[in-house]
Amino acid sequence: MPKAILTLNAGSSSIKFALYELDAGVALQQVSHGQIESIGVAPHFIARATDGTVLSEYRWTSSATLEHEALLTPLLAWITTHLGQEALCAVGHRIVHGGSTYNRPVYLDAQVVADLTKLTPLAPLHQPHNLAAVRAIAQLRPELPQVGCFDTAFHQGLSADAARLALPRRYAAEGVRRYGFHGLSYEYIAGRLREQAPGLAAGRVIAAHLGNGASLCAMHNGQSVDTTMGFTTLDGLVMGTRCGNLDPGAVLYLQQAHGLSATDVEHMLYHDSGLLGVSGISSDMRMLLTSDDACAREAIDLFVFRIARETGALISTLGGIDALVFSAGIGEHAAPIRAAVCARLGWLGIECDAEANSRHAAQISTSNSRVPVFIVPTDEEAMIASHTAHVLQNARSPV
Predict the structure, then answer these.
(1) What is the DSSP string of 155-182?
(2) What are the catalytic residues?
(3) Counting Cβ atoms within 10 Å, is residue 186 exposed (0-12), middle (13-18) or buried (19+)?
(4) CA 113 to each of CA 13, 104, 126, 206, 326: distance values in angstroms, whole numbers, following the listed order
(5) Where are the domains of the chain?
(6) 15 and 24 in contact (C-beta within 8 Å)?
(7) What SS3 class is residue 2?
(8) CATH topology of domain 198-380
(9) pTM to 2 decimals?
(10) Each residue of 275-296: pLDDT tens digit?
(11) Do 4-150 and 198-380 agree at the fold level?
């Protein structure tokens, strides 16, 4: 039976997974994927083949409040039935924050997990759930090697100017700096662009990861040189429920004038702001695009405005731009958003081909566009699987 790697991307309301078959210990092929969704409400496990066929499905009771151990049990049981007891050789995890220490994929032993737990205040929306899945696998299958792959790692090469915050120096020693996120996505995009357009990939590229979480990354020769997310995942663009760039004075005002506690402000900035906060309707771009409500239009316009403005800033960092790439849920599927961003960037000589954009073609710029514009579907799971296989090949698992 071929060996396989399981990838996990654990969030607050869902756990996405994929299963990759190892070929001679290196080459990877996805054989199935799925998710455990509606966690905390009515958990639902579903596994699908690569063609979308449902392979397995399981539902808990509607009132179930379950720990990750219980949620992951049917997944591991299905993998054992599907592939055999000895087939699964490792689990790779997306870990949002690796801090300054973890700048490459590593085995997740007790000390590493303890270190990563200390970073929870820097990524409160993600880190606890990422690590809960790690602990659950350790309880259920303690013999399985686990590998952490970090969203911050791709940005570890940022210059001091790009990483520094203008705060008293003593805080920098504590790790208070700009880190950048969505690194697994940007790493995948850089690799795909090298395959599709190697000449452009070697140049100055701005990639837009636009989903419920959204950011931009300025890359030169496939390396990150600047990005819109900073110390936390709150920074930069307007997102589904997160505010993006915000004057710190606004936080002080909310605390002083409205009596909001730090916990109140944290919840508002992470959960009640962004597209949801501005529209008052939804954080889902699909719903906003079909709405006739003026507030929905305002939220969309702000989303686009901030993407264009931040793109201009990153062009300054790069000293120009050779290609623009859209990716992630909104970037890959929302043609009106891509068209609106390209229109705002028309001063660069960008021309969007309406027909190519409407059918989500790989290249959506016209032949006359001075800057080529691409859609590159991202695949963070493939990056996690690849990194996990590499760690297995090149290091010994901890005892």
Answers:
(1) GTT--HHHH--SS-HHHHTTT-S-----
(2) 151
(3) buried
(4) 22, 15, 14, 33, 33
(5) 4-150, 198-380
(6) no
(7) coil
(8) Nucleotidyltransferase; domain 5 (3.30.420)
(9) 0.90
(10) 999 999 999 999 999 999 999 9
(11) yes
